[in-house]
Amino acid sequence: MTTTPIIFDTDPGVDDAQAIALILADPAIEVVGMTTTYGNVPVETATSNALLLTELAGQTVPVAQGAARPLSKTPNPFPTFVHGVNGLGDIDLPSPKTQAVDQTAAQFLVEKTKERPGELTLVAVGPLGNLATALQIDPNIVDRVKQVVIMGGSVKQGGNVTPVAEANIYSDPHAAQRVFNAGWPVVMVGLDVTHKTHLSPDRMARIQAAQGELGRVLGESYGFYADFYRKALGIDGCCPHDSCAVAWLKKPELFKTVRGHLNVVTEGLAQGQTVFAPEEATFAEPRWSQTPLIDVCMDIDGDAVSQWIEDTLTT
Ligand SMILES: [Ca+2]
């Protein structure tokens, strides 16, 4: 079997937990490590959750702790009304028995890509400070990474923390602008596809039943998270945002991507907005079309992706 080696950059987070369960369940994905960031929760909580979820999955994966705050903007309040104070819906959780490695997330990204040049895909599903810092300490990392898959941003869907900004990008727009435009191969998996993907209570019940103690954490935290989505989007279930980035790795045929230029608004009222200029489009004002080309997911077969999530976590 060909396996896809990845480093998973994460701020768990209920939907992060679902995605972590997926990457650890899929034998065709090799999880070389996880790097943590603040975002849904403080970074110490993110690290603790990443370690605990790995233990509950019965696996050993190095976890490197990273960014505790944005590169330059004032931190936003943590979204406790979405993920709970503990990031996993405020359910009872044991403490992890394992510890993070003695290396920062950015150092870990630099070192692992040196050990395996050209092989690793970075899947980043939180604010992008760790990747931005790795670029800062070693700009040559762009030539050693196979691909960067980013859950974040929005082109036509509008935002989820402001009318125009998606949460991960809004949390650190300066980092996002650097990461999107560093010149490495980037795929953006944003709200244009994650809002079209709904994980229903029925599917989660079957996942919970199949996953033991990890299933309890996934199922109970889902309950808290789905309450938010019922109020926010009027759907019965949740958007498994971060799992969509994993789905893109495994099932790209379920997505429609468009190639173009992506810029992040870093300051002002529209801070965190991702502005997309498709390659084919010509504009009188060329300033939006000067960055490297990336791929942006614009459509998805959401039902098929939800089915894939369930299948992966129940077989
Ligand atoms: Ca996340």
Automatic annotation (TrEMBL):
Record-linked Pfam families: IU_nuc_hydro (PF01156)
SUPFAM superfamilies for this protein: Nucleoside hydrolase
Domain of life: Bacteria
GO molecular function: hydrolase activity
Entry keywords, A to Z: Glycosidase, Hydrolase
Residue ranges occupied by any Inosine/uridine-preferring nucleoside hydrolase domain in the UniProt entry: 6-305
Gene3D superfamilies the record matches: Ribonucleoside hydrolase-like (3.90.245.10)
Protein name according to UniProt: Nucleoside hydrolase
Organism field: Larsenimonas suaedae
Lineage, uppermost ranks: Bacteria, Pseudomonadati, Pseudomonadota, Gammaproteobacteria, Oceanospirillales
